[in-house]
Amino acid sequence: MSDSNVIEVKDVWKSFKTVQAVKGISLNIPKGQFVAILGPNGAGKTTLVEMIEGIQKPDKGEITIMGKHWKGHQDELHRIIGLALQETRLIDKLRVTETLQLFAAFFNIGKQRINEIIEIVGLEEKRKSFVVNLSGGQRQRLALGIALINSPAILLLDEPTTGLDPNARREIWEILNGLKDKSETSMILTTHYMEEAERLCDYVIIMDNGVILREGSIGELLKEYKNLDDLFVSLTGRRIYE
Question: Which CATH number fits domain 5-86+154-236: 3.30.565.10, 1.10.3720.10, 3.40.50.1220, 3.40.50.300?
Answer without folding.
Answer: 3.40.50.300
